[in-house]
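Section 5.1 Outputs to date
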Amino acid sequence: MAIEESLATLRELKERAALGGGQNRVDAQHARGKLTARERIDTLLDPASFEELDALAVHLDNGEGGERLYGDAVVTGWGRIDGRSVGVFAQDFTVFGGSLGEVVGDKIAKAMDLATKTGIPMIGLNDSGGARIQEGVGSLAGYGEIFRRNVRASGVIPQLSVILGPCAGGAVYSPALTDFIFMVEGTSQMFLTGPDVIASVTGEQTTFEELGGANSHASKSGVSHFAVEGEQETLEEVKRLLSFLPSNNMDDAPTVDTGDPTDRRMEDVLSILPAESQSPYDVRDVIERLVDNGDFMEVHELFAQNMVVGFARIGGRSVGVVANQPLYLAGVLDIDSSRKAARFVRFCDAFNIPIVTLVDVPGFLPGVSQEYGGIISHGAKLVYAYAEATVPKVTIILRKAFGGAYDAMGSKHLGADVNYAWAGAAVAVMAGSQAVNIINRRELQAADDEDAERQRLIADYEEELEHPYIAAANGYIDDVIDPRDTRIKVAKALEMLRTKSESMPPKKHGSIPL
């Protein structure tokens, strides 16, 4: 075949591949308010940066005949986001409903292998009807190969999953193995079994949106880290998240000139804390004053809202922020908030992102449901995560740190490098209002005026024990600081800790209490 004829054939095949399942199916995808796989890639990546892999791969025939669709039901390759290389795959719903067959599985696995070898983030754009039933166990093998690669790449390169349509059955486990999941409100669903199967087995009535929609997973299950309105807005958030992350576990995150000086005082921070120590406030107000230009990308915003986690910059460098949220449940640690924070701390540790912890915690949440739900094991995950982390760790006690929660929230005893407490903070086994009922029970029973005696004993307890100076005297707190100097102190600590070198004892891996 002459070169000119071969090039003409190549152009024809590429054009066919670019149409996916054909113009009618492309139109149907648009009618649902959804972009095609290639349009999503073009929206996500820098212009003209996408290099495709296996565009001419063809799905298995299985003896059924029909049109041979080039590229099958996924588009794979690599490109750039803000000039940095990334690997990407986008399932193509216009081809067999985006179902995963043997060829699709091979294409995705190949792209994942390339991303892992080259140390670039891997982004999966998911929109699929699930396993291709006609291919039998071959489609299941494809999922298994992807799962194994998800695990091998975990902690090596950032893995991001974007759910842009249905994701059901075994297909949900690959996103669940990745670091962050984005979902589109009103469009995305994730579930193991659909509403019809649930109704037939358990009698429960539900809808696709209630069962596996973006807001359900963002607020109730915690499966999704981000729920965003609109596909294009979701892809912009993916790019924003990547700006805080390194390309792999051997790199540092990009440094950005934010123009916000590190010697800036947080002059109005005192106005945030209420005069009454039990009154709530929004810890995000503290975070926004602490970080560069108030730019904070919250993760898991709608889940376990008594804990706030997310990414920001201090001095132009990425940090992970973990903070108790007094606005919800007084910032108490419970099952979900412990899981949420532990997972975030472990991600930051895997990818060389320093951890800044803001503590205002009354303790662990008591209750039968918490005990039966395994608060002991789940709380231990948070302890494990902080103790395991070797990245720079700076902790600030804002208002209170009581009981075992004091230990769990990035204490010096779990390996934090620099620990501060705000003047006026309280550090103790428990609050005076609880403590006197235990240690002064007899005095209260013998008192003529029990309420007056209780108030006197609480005041004595607060003066003697409920303050940061005992912890400071023992070296558990490195300094008690003016809250307005918090940014300055944290920035100096992080600068000093840039050369930190610490490693865990040689081992295959630890046994975190899963």
